[in-house]
């Protein structure tokens, strides 16, 4: 029996050129999956694809705007026609948004940006892949949220509401898709300690909050955020990717409609 978790699975990763999406794509490929990475920046997709191909994996890239529903549906149809099915889908799309601005100074546009952006992409990608999943081949949809879904702190109104919405979306979608043999799981990491070095938007995201306490972004991550967790550290890209591979595999076959908490104990469920 093969020791590969995802052998002969077809996995599409939206936001596959980003720090988290790229890390997960590399691990999925290592575990035997055929990878289809989707994103808005071809150069980032190509960098991930080169790593996967160099390690002997199978990967294809597609430059698709995940807010373009017809384009996403067309691409999903093409994957299913080529590969025969979509077995795993991960939404790792990032939407730049405000953190650190209180209600009095927060505009409606800034408040709504993450809510509309994140939830719109979840709806579009989930609808596109679900019709090509499940039945005789178990399907898995993985989404990403953040601790902001449960934190009671100021300055993250749009971020927190969008995170809570992503977790609710995943839970409710799990109920809808369970009869079709499709599992839906949300992964909730905290800020990722090595994401800035991997080219994520973390630096821009936390710049305002870090500056307000006179710290660099890395100092802010390693200090305030990390020290606010039980483990006194933030998750790594590797930890998130390895967990995602497990959740996408048959070894997690009894898990659906839940949140995998990778916050280091920033939240205790």
From TrEMBL:
Family annotation (CDD domains): SDR_c (cd05233)
SUPFAM superfamilies in UniProt: NAD(P)-binding Rossmann-fold domains (SSF51735)
Transmembrane region(s): none
GO molecular function, one term: oxidoreductase activity
A Pfam family matched in the record: adh_short_C2
Keywords, in A-Z order: Oxidoreductase
Keyword Disulfide bond: no
Family (UniProt): Belongs to the short-chain dehydrogenases/reductases (SDR) family.
Protein name per its UniProtKB record: SDR family oxidoreductase
UniProt source species: Actinomadura rudentiformis
């Amino acid at each position: 029996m093969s020791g590969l978790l995802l052998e002969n699975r077809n996995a599409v990763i939206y936001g596959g050129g980003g720090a988290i999406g790229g890390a997960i794509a590399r691990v999925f490929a290592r575990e035997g999956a055929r990878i289809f990475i989707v994103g808005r920046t071809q150069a980032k997709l190509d960098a991930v694809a080169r790593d996967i191909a160099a390690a002997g994996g199978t990967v294809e890239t597609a430059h698709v705007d995940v807010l373009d529903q017809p384009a996403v549906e067309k691409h999903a149809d093409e994957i299913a026609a080529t590969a025969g099915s979509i077995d795993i889908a991960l939404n790792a799309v990032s939407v730049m948004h405000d953190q650190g601005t209180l209600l009095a100074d927060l505009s409606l546009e800034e408040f709504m940006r993450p809510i509309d952006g994140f939830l719109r992409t979840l709806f579009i990608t989930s609808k596109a892949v679900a019709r090509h999943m499940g039945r005789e081949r178990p399907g898995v949809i993985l989404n990403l949220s953040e601790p902001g879904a449960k934190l009671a702190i100021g300055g993250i109104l749009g971020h927190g509401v969008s995170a809570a919405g992503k977790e609710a979306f995943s839970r409710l979608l799990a109920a809808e898709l369970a009869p079709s043999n499709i599992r839906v799981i949300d992964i909730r990491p905290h800020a990722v300690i090595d994401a800035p070095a991997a080219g994520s938007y973390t630096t821009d995201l936390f710049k305002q909050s870090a500056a307000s306490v006179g710290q660099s972004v890395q100092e802010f991550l390693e200090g305030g955020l990390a020290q606010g967790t039980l483990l006194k550290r933030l998750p790594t890209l590797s930890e998130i990717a390895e967990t995602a591979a497990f959740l996408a595999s048959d070894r997690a076959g009894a898990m659906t409609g839940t949140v995998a908490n990778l916050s280091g104990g920033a939240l205790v469920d």
